[in-house]
Sequence to fold (1177 residues):
Amino acid sequence: MDEKAKRTRELLASFYSTDHSAGGGAGVGSAASPRKMASPDSINSPSFDPDVYMSLLVQKLNLEGLLQKHVEMAAEIKNLDTDLQMLVYENYNKFINATDTIKRMKNNIVGMEANMEQLLAKITSVQSKSDLVNTSLFEKREHIEKLHRTRNLLRKVQFIYDLPTRLAKCIKAEAYADAVRFFIGSKPIFEAYGDSSFQDCKRASEEAIDLVIKNLEAKIYSDSEPIEARAEAVVLLKQLNFPVDSLKTKLLEKLEDYLMTLQDEHKETGASALDTLETSEPSDIGKLSDTILSLKTPTGTHMVSVGEISKIIRAYLIIFPDSERRLIELIQELFTKRYGIIERRVKERMTSADILKMIRVIWEDVTLMDEVLAEAALPAFSLEAARSIIRQFISTSFSHLLLEVSEALTKSQPMPKKGSEESSLQNALEGSKKVVIQGSLDLLLEFRQLLDDNLELLAKLRDLIVDWVQEGFQGFFQKLDERFLALCGKGYIANPDSSVIDAIQVDKVQTGLVLVLAQLSVFIEQIAIPRIMEEIAASFSGGGARGYEHGPAFVPGEICRIFRSAGERFLLLYINMKTQKISILLKKRFTTPNWIKHKEPREVHMFVDLLLQELEAVGIEVRQILPQGLVRRHRHSDSTGSTNSSRSNATREDKLTRTNTQRVRSQFLESHLAKLFEQKMEIFTKVQYTQESVISTIIKFCLKSLQEFVRLQTFNRSGFQQIQLDIEFLKNPLKEFVDDDAAIDFLLKEVIGAAHERCLDPIPLEAPILDKLISTKISKSREESQSSSLA
Amino acid sequence: GRIPSSFPLTQTVKRSVVLHNQRLTAVFLCRRVTMRGASTGIVYGGLKYQARSIADVKADTDHTSFLAGTLSLKEENEVHLIRLSPPGSELVCEGLFYHPNEIWDLKSCPFNPRIFSTVYTSGETYGASVWQIPELNSQSNAPQLEHLISLNEHSFKIKCVLWWPSGKHDKLISIDEGNLFLWSIDTSNKMAKVISQESVGMLHNLSGGAWDPHDRNAVAGICDSSLEFWDLRTMKKTSSIEQAHARDVDYNPKKQHLLVTAEDVSGIRLWDLRRPKCPVKELPGHAHWTWAVRHNPEYDELILSAGTDSTVNLWLAHPPGANDSMSESPVDSPKRPKDSLLNSYTDYEDSVYGLAWSTREPSVFASLSYDGRVVVESVKSYIRRK
Fold:
């Protein structure tokens, strides 16, 4: 039993996988002692130990349990046995089937060999028969082939003999393509036999083909032929090994000459236009530019338009596809020269309309040409050209404006004649104001035209134009400021590196001009810049081609600041120039006499006349340029002069009696106390752009200078009295100029005080003498003015 | 006990108060002060009369001191030795000396603190002398100045005396309206003799000058409408700056060839003598005449100017070449330091004629207005700012 079980187990193990062999073995080995481990499955494990299982089972279960287990196991074993039997029967059945199949196969193979042998015999017989047929037909076939070749040859010979007539026919019909084809077809034969059998024939053919070539050549040169025909002719000629290249160069040279003459005509007309420009009115420029730029020359001899050139080029392109590069060069040259003419013209003053017209004419030609010769990249080329032209145009416009402004300023310099001087400064101011504002607005209008134009070329430049215009204005005003400085003889400061100083010497600068500049600067700051800013914002905003980080090119705030400070500077300069002039007068007055040995005063010194004359001149200039101040004191008319002087004489008398008693003692302290509270506030106030402010500033400065000059001298009594007399006299005329009586009084008092300090023996003139001398002077000057007005 | 008690009672009522109690001054002048902003300077009111001349006592290395001389036609004139007290808070009169005539120019000897020169007039007479301050141990309130040398070769009105600013040198220059004199002086033996003399002719009118601190043979003279330069060895003109109506001229103490002028119309102008055709720089100067102009002895870009508009202005003006500004574009170069008015000292009641930096303390300057007030200001805050 053990033996049998073991064999069965091994068989099963070989049939199933090794895993199952153990399990199977365990399952089969019912006698094997069961081992109880963690799970009941362990009975299937390969390491199953029946003894352990048994002992575990015994230990664990009671009798009843053991019996139950026994029953279970017996049932399992029985089941497994049945399964085993089933498997054995199944396998046996399969084996029997296989044996049957093998037996059947053996029987079927036996008849096959005979059939094969039969087949072989048949095939052999078919092959022998086929060989037989082949040999019998061979001779005939060879003959046929020979005959066929001969026939072909004969046909060719016939063709060649016919060739001349055929070619002639072709020429007649102008079917040159056929002629060339025929000729080329027969060429190998001519080459082989041309010297012998077909000599005549060859000659005739060649003559015919020469005629063909000639005709083709004529066709190519003839402009009236359709382009396709001409192109075909070139192809045919090329096939005939005709030197086409030389033909091409010849044709291109022709075109080149043609373009050259065109350009020459441009140049001539351009030059003549420029000549006439100088003599003719600006309104003619437009007309002239028309004639210059459209290719119709005034003489009309050539009457060639770009359209025709483009046609020619189109033809050439088709005729000689490899001539493109040369053509591009030619055309680019043509347009470079044409743009060059405009660029030269732009340096003159032109209107946008002119520029636009010129660019438009060329642009039309460019588009026309571009259709034909896109490879020439003419639009890009034109864009570049237009860019530089417009840039040049904008900058030229600004420099012209700059020139106009300075002309307006300098043209109407004060004339030597007094009458014209009255209004000339005003004219200069009004003229230059107008030029600045109107010129700027006109320029903007001009540039607007550039922007508003629908020309495709300009649309691409829009942003750039906006930037250029803004930059232009920025640069224009900066340059204007520098120009102003130069006009005042201060130019070298703005340009210190220039080795040549051509700035006008300060002495030669017209003071009136400085005043005009001051007021013009104010005008630019307050009126012109805001106005221009508005215009720019309205139609020249955007741009931005220069990048946002830079901000807009036109910075009105900066320009305003420049001109605000420029205005103040010019106003101060004017005052300085005037005070300097008077200062020289005063210096002469005070350094010339020996004050310590001065003689008793007999009359008011004549320097007061000069001083008043200077102030009068200032008044004339200032009244032309500057507005009146808001607070205007009542101005004494000339007719009331006498009463005025008597009235002020009375007040002065009061003052004199008072001062005569007190002055000597308290003058020093008094003046110092006065200074303490008055001086700085009164004298050195900020100058305003009004007539009164400027005149009073000048007078205050002069009186201050007077005081300083007095302080540098030492006086004897008479010298002091002379000063006293002069100052006393000045009091009223000065007040005619200035509404600030208190300041004048104070400053005059300062002068007398200074003289008093610097006097060895300061005893003032008696009031009656003072009055008498002053009234003598007044009547004398009145007489003089009367006599001068009579004369 | 340094101040004489016998002040004449004119303007000096206020002054004596000022001297003893500065705070009282502030009360007295409160209206002015509130209107012009607080004053920062230290005021010395000891000068009793008008005055034009103040000089830094350069040779005094122990103290910051100044010499000021009065200009009074009728009263007895004085020279005050003023010292800035060590904490820098007070001006003390260290010595008061009577001077026989009114003083138009006063210069301190650069190598001896006790020696100085004056130019003076008296009526029609004029003169220039070198003086020595006596030893200060005596009890006298107003000891006599020791008269060392008279520079009496002049036939025109004397304008100024120049010491060579850079140290010990036995020469002295005196300028009158028509002549330039070079003197050899010997202070110990009280000797002076003219080495050479140059007459500028009647057409020109000399009014002042400056001695080049970099070249003891070069001197600048102020003519009517130009600045003339002489070589002292040959006494010939070397060059000139035309179109300069200068009132004052000062050489740059640090850089040769550079100088600054003060002019009535053009304000302050900086020049490079190698290119005398046009100024290197212009500063607006003063509302009225710019009377005096001085470089700071240490920080040469600080320029001080005094004007007849009763102000002293402190300017920052970078001399060219210091930062290669010549090669840069002159306009709109943001990196280039701006020349500017740093401060305007307005605490004056009259024209300011006298101006002196302290060599010992370069951040301090003294100014003298015509009414005799000495104001010492510190510019320290502006130096630090650089």
Remarks:
- The mean pLDDT of chain A is 74.
- The interface with chain B takes residues 478, 492-497, 501, 505-507, 572, 576-577, 579-580, 583, 591, 596-597, 668-669, 672, 675-677, 679-681, 683-684, 701, 704-705, 708, 711, 714, 757-760 of chain A (CB under 8 Å).
- Residues 112-173 of chain A form the longest helix (62 residues).
